[in-house]
Amino acid sequence: MTRKLVTVRKVAAVHPIKGADRIEAVEVDGWTCIAGRGQFRAGDLAVFFEIDSFLPAGDPRWTHLADKFITYTGERGFRVKSARMRGQISQGILEPLDDFPEILAAWVDLEIRHGRREAERLLRETAFEGLLGVKKFEATETAVTATGEPAHKSDQIPMPEFIPRTDQERVQNLPDVFEKWGEEIFQETVKMDGSSMTVYFVRNDSPLMDKLAPLGTEGKQTAAQPNGRFDVCSRNVEKPESQGRYFWASAKKNSLPEKLSRLNRNIALQGELCGSSIQKNFEGFPLGFHDFFVFGAWDIDERRYMKPKETEDLVGRLGLKHVPIVGYHRLGDIARNVQEILARAEGIGINGKKREGIVLKQVDGRFSFKTISNSYLLKHGE
After folding, report:
1. pLDDT at 141 > cutoff 60
2. Helices 116-125 and 101-114 meet at what angle, rounded to 10?
3. Which of 173, 224, 338, 343 could form a disulfide with 30 if both were Cys (CB 3.0 to 4.6 A apart)?
4. Which CATH superfamily is domain 171-379 in?
């Protein structure tokens, strides 16, 4: 599911903030934003900029944020992060719809083509980051060659298109999740703070072999197995063995090329690469430790994620590490609303440090979502 950074939302409620005369807490779906007093009323449509939106400095509507601009991928702008004001957590930025004539024009066009009622529904389902020049802020790991030199972006190979990117919807964007899925059983796991890692194997007799990038010519190619092709990816790009660093080191440590070759099926394992050199080591691993923690298995031929129990069993048979499993529960038994699941997300991670949050996967593999701890977001500036 592609994340929508900029959307039109309906204000659910407005609440005063104790001790604050000039600001209020505004609820939109499962999110709460701080806005100017009297700026919004319940029922208003507004433009919501989600956490990790990178707002372009060239847009004069963000001039008031100029003292907080940063440079990201060579451009100046503002990164939307969680914040706390007067004891109130604010996640995202909410702006009046009237301040965005380009979105209003899109609404008029939708109304002409679909009628008023359908136009509003379609408007609220549309992502407007492209129209407004907003990008997603991502902490990226620089690719490094075997000689220690940075790899050029033009040299990077995209992850194969037949493997989905790892990105799950946040619970705040699913306000009706407890009504729709409250009676269903979910696997609850700890969300680990690492770098997204995917390993895959494609058999020689698969037509997908023609879609893979050619292997390099330097040295022995571990990717070339007798019966197929093994490779390693980060969130979006392949990691050649000469550039893979901790990605490939973790794959080899776990004998993944050989194990997936012996499995002899078209499959991708996805998880978190964690360790002392990854993401400032928020998980608190000892110096020199790096490993791959699996959270999902993608059946390439059937184009589906395996059920949580199937993945758990496969990980065990392969002798790999699974992200910590809290248990299996009926969703309604552990939370009845967004506030309760956010409270549950607070907790301790694998090494006694504050965890990032939790992930809930329906046992048939049909649906999943994540809940990020608010205190984690504030602590790590996200």
Report:
1. no
2. 130
3. 338
4. DNA ligase/mRNA capping enzyme (3.30.470.30)
